[in-house]
Amino acid sequence: MRKLTLAAVVSACVFAGAVQAANPEAGKEKSRTCAACHGPDGNSAAADFPKLAGQHYDYLLKTLKDYKSGVRKNAIMAPQVANLNQRDIEDLAAYYSHQQGLVTRKNPYLVPKSH
Amino acid sequence: MKTSSTSGLALAALALAAASVASPASAQAQASGNADTGRLKSSMCAGCHSIPGYKTAFPEVYHVPKIDGQHSAYIVSALKAYKSGERRHPSMRAVAASLSDQDMADLAAFYASGPAKSASR
């Protein structure tokens, strides 16, 4: 019983930590600059700017970190991410990953094409 | 005379600005892609990008990006950046290196035909 309680407390803390770490609502507030190119919900209207809506959270994190570290170079993105801290990056990634947009269609070689 | 040379300069500057703005659009129009052909060429992509929730194993672990519904112009530019080495990822570099401009255009057309919302304002 004691073990169970401990497990419950630990998992509650881990959960609370995860929720606190990335806040899509805060991300929405921080996304106003991004919206100019990527659209208000990450479904960009301009074909040169990638859609972010529905993208995986961890991929968005990686992308923003790579722009910030200079691993990925882009003249437009570099100055945008320069002032973002870890928390901002997590919030933005949470916001865009929660929007409706990009998907993964199943392997076209396993699913017959419907006409 | 002074005014006309100034306006000539201004015109030249305008033309230059217009050309630099127009270049991304003209780059898009270079090769037009066919989604059905792209589907047939997507076997190399499908092993990662057509498995919902699939994660990379090397060199870092994260979900491979969703690309169904992405803009075709953006997919082409990403593939070109992988091919040139400007964007670094071992698997993507190898895959992109084997693709022609037409292959890229066809694959981009196929993935862009995915069901994502086209745009919102």
Overall description:
The complex is a heterodimer of chains A (115) and B (121). Chain A is mainly α and 115 residues long. Chain A has a domain at 20-97: Orthogonal Bundle (Cytochrome Bc1 Complex, Chain D, domain 2). Chain A has helices spanning 2-21, 24-30, 32-38, 57-69, 77-82, 86-97. Chain A starts with a helix and ends in an 18-residue tail after the last helix. The model of chain A has no long low-confidence stretch (mean pLDDT 87). The radius of gyration of chain B is 19 Å and the shape is globular. Chain B has 121 residues and is mainly α. The longest helix of chain B is centred in the N-terminal third of the chain and has 27 residues, at 2-28. Chain B is 61% helix and 0% strand. The chains are: A mainly alpha (115), B mainly alpha (121). At the A-B interface, helix 4 of A face helix 3 and helix 4 of B.
